[in-house]
Design brief:
Number of helices: 2
Oligomer: single chain
Largest sheet: 8 strands, mixed
Low-confidence stretches: none
């Protein structure tokens, strides 16, 4: 999706863990291993964006992990809080505020599907395999992968 605002956009990153492995994609345009994710569109909230991006980029239906406060009522819907937030520079004049989620596949037997228009590769990686990826993981992505693998039973 194109940028919604010229200076800043909101994005989601989803670290999906299954059987002590984290799901990564080799992004076609950026040439980097990244989690699933992308821009939050104008007609969706962060949860909807995370579920949509995961489905579009991997074919998986996921369950976001985290706490949802019991505050949903008329005119209000409580959202699962992201595990982390960051802000990262895209260009000299544009930044992304990233909402970083942990997730699990809803279906243990769900079949991965490569979004070939966006990615060169998709794979489940153990903590040990993270160091052998080529190109190498960016330090922040590796840190999030290891943190997700430590925190999520799966």
């Amino acid at each position: 999706m194109a940028h919604i605002h010229e200076r800043i956009d909101f994005t989601v990153s989803i670290f999906v863990v299954k059987h002590r492995r984290v799901l990564l994609v080799l992004h076609r345009n950026l040439g980097q291993w990244l989690p699933l994710g992308g821009h939050i569109e104008l007609d969706e909230d962060p949860e909807q964006a995370a579920l949509r991006e995961a489905r579009e980029e991997s074919g998986l239906d996921i369950e976001l992990l985290g706490e949802r406060p019991p505050t949903t009522g008329p005119g209000t819907r409580a959202l699962i809080a992201p595990r982390f937030l960051d802000i990262h520079r895209i260009t000299d004049t544009h930044e992304h505020i990233g909402m970083i989620y942990w997730a699990r596949p809803k279906n243990e037997n769900g079949e991965l599907r490569l979004a070939a228009a966006e990615h060169h590769d998709i794979r489940w990686c153990s903590a040990e395999e993270l160091d052998s990826l080529s190109p190498s993981l960016r330090p922040a992505v590796k840190w999030y992968c290891l943190k997700a693998l430590t925190e999520i039973d799966g």
